């Protein structure tokens, strides 16, 4: 029997990443990092105007606002010029966009599809969403990141409204074709597949940067497995920026293990959020992370929506995946893993710059002699930087969805902000049962009958399949 050849450690990690991500590193790309909506949008709109063969446009949220209209105009112009334009959006993410917006695109010859409209029978399907953000032009140029198509990302300088903090990446070269293939895959799940000629692009070499395309599919856990491997292999630093950080237990523990092994683990999260419940749930884990040596920073500017990782001045991950169970296990997501020292150096510089506009969360020992000092957990405190952030005035959509969570909620009130509304909801439901027993009985009776009907349908389908 021939003995297996031992691989160097770097090759072993590369092989493990190949298997975890579902693809090998693709060489020959030019990679350009983009920051915040104005820069991302300007670059993408300019590139879209040069499309000659096809445009594949996939985004979780596309709104009928100033930003949405700008993209609609360039897409319509290209479609009328003979370019094949396809737009895919998530039904839930773009639920507030009026039908007129989509009809305008269709009248120009653009094919528009919505990923998984509401299903009253298949309840589980409603949970799985298409959270990707991708633009591909002619199979040669692609944009990936956390950006949606909405005014929150664009900002409004005239009204002193800053754009949301975002990170995207422009990729030119063979990796763009792989991203186009990822679009073709999810497009086929919404109807007729793309013509073969639009799935086999062979763009020219554009640079020296290797890129892995991590196409997250429900049940494959690709981003989670990739993160676990890169984190386990990190020896010097692992810096995370995440909009909705709620790491699964295994990844949570891996962050602590890395910090205790001497890795500089830092996590940058929003100080205020458009989803305050998730923001408060994130804060539940602060004490454990801090005790384990992880450093936590809260962004003090407008909404922080970027989803990035930079590790060991080598690995850079950018995409749509948040470090929470919904993104890591349930949704269709799209990320890239870049193995390049120059890109990593730039990302580290941006991370350090972001920390200058952030506040660090610290453990503060209880006062000596405090009555409950032995059983009360260590208090948390905010250490602000000397630099004061520019005033941010939220836009209309942000004001509708945003609930400002002040820094003093760190000292215990995160639980109040999370469980308080839950307690009020149960209180209101109980009161309704007392005041309107017949109406509530009819409502819940109808609800349970519907659930029984749906469960019966699923049971029949399974038994019918044998």
Your description of this structure?
The structure is a single chain. The chain is built from 16 helices and 16 strands. It has 466 residues and is of the alpha+beta class. The protein has 2 domains: 9-360, 2-Layer Sandwich (Endonuclease, Chain A); 424-465. It has a 16-stranded mixed sheet, with helices on both faces. α8 packs parallel to α9 (249-260). The chain is globular. Residues 372-376, 386-391 and 398-418 have low confidence and may be disordered.
What attributes characterize this protein structure?
466 residues, 41% helix, single chain, 16-stranded mixed beta sheet, Endonuclease, Chain A, 2 domains, alpha+beta
Question: How is this fold's topology laid out?
Answer:
Blueprint: H1 9-21, E1 26-35, H2 36-48, E2 54-59, H3 66-80, E3 84-90, H4 99-107, E4 111-115, H5 123-127, E5 133-137, E6 141-145, H6 151-154, E7 167-172, H7 174-188, E8 209-216, H8 222-233, E9 237-241, H9 249-260, E10 264-270, H10 276-284, H11 286-291, E11 295-299, E12 308-311, E13 315-319, H12 325-330, E14 333-339, H13 341-355, E15 358-364, E16 379-384, H14 396-401, H15 413-435, H16 437-465
Helix pairs in contact: 1-8, 8-9, 10-15, 15-16
